[in-house]
Amino acid sequence: MLRRRRYPSGMVAYVFDPPPRPAISILGTDAMFPVRRILCVGRNYAAHRREMGGDDREPPFFFSKPADAVVGAGAAIPYPSATADLHHEVELVAALGSGGADVAVEDALALVFGHAVGVDLTRRDLQGAARAKGQPWDAAKGFDRSAPMGAIRPAQGAPPGGRIRLTVNGAARQDASLGDMIWNVGEIIAQASRLWRLAAGDLIFTGTPEGVGPLVRGDRVEAAIDDVGDLTFTIT
Asked: Does domain 22-235 have CATH number 3.20.20.100?
């Protein structure tokens, strides 16, 4: 049986009910931020580049996760299949409230609705194997529940520039300053807009500092960014 839904353009028939759109909570309101897609920046902190065996002179690059990889704070995230080396990567996330193509750096911050704490969960063993063969990272980065995020704090002037940190079971793993980013938020958005037409609902994970490491079942992860918020989840 076809499922029909009414939209402003009229009735649309589907062969099954479309799933709800992923969404993240917004601080200070009951409204939700609908997620369109997730873009991620790799190696945007010099120390992390060295940690992962890269050259400081290499520019950051982009990869993506599906929108339904997002999961909110407090989640119990099952240890993913097909890996024995799950890693955490804490990141500042820019949530876009508008978009465009070929956006100038000086105009890029006007697209930002707000910021959040995010963690890019990574099947590190699969990533290493893919990198060695020159293959895509989709299975290493884009699996279910691989993008836990805290609530979005609406933007207030300049992007946050304070401390970013992550602990596992209370032990410090990552601790750095957002000022250590090689490309700042405006530059990242401008560069992304040259590769895709950005739109409201896009999330951009802006890279992780050094200190990435493994997670096992039972671990409690706590992450925070000054003037942005925090995020807690567990691996089950």
From this structure: no
Lowest mean pLDDT among 56-60, 131-135, 169-173: 56-60
The sheet with strand 163-168 has its strands ordered as 76-77, 229-235, 220-225, 163-168, 171-177
Alpha helix positions (H), the chain: 46-51, 105-108, 124-133, 138-141, 185-195
Task: Please check whether residue 86 is in contact with residue 80, taking contact to mean a CB–CB distance below 8 angstroms.
Answer: yes
Q: Can you read off the two tokens belonging to residue 71?
A: 């999961």
Asked whether 45 and 208 are in contact (CB, 8 A), the reply is yes
Band of pLDDT at residue 13, cut at 50, 70 and 90: confident
Closest by alpha carbon to 26, among 88, 93, 78?
A: 93
Widest CA span of the chain, in angstroms? 56
Every domain of the chain and the residues it spans: 22-235
Sequence-ordered list of residues with C-beta below 8 angstroms from that of 134, at least 6 positions apart, any chain = none
Tell me the torsion sign for CA atoms 191, 144, 122, 174. positive
Alpha-carbon gap, residue 100 to 5, rounded angstroms: 29
- The residue that leads in pLDDT, 163 or 49, is 163
d(CA 158, CA 179) in angstroms, rounded, equals 13
Indicate the length of the chain as a whole number. Answer: 236
Q: Can you tell me the distance from the alpha carbon of 135 to that of 137, in angstroms, rounded to the nearest whole number?
A: 7
Give whole-number Cα distances, 50 to 53, 56, 60, 71, 153, in Å: 5, 7, 13, 30, 31
User: Which residue is it, tokens 């807690």?
Assistant: 232
Amino acid found at 59: P
Tell me how many degrees the CA angle 4-198-88 measures, rounded to the nearest 5.
Answer: 95
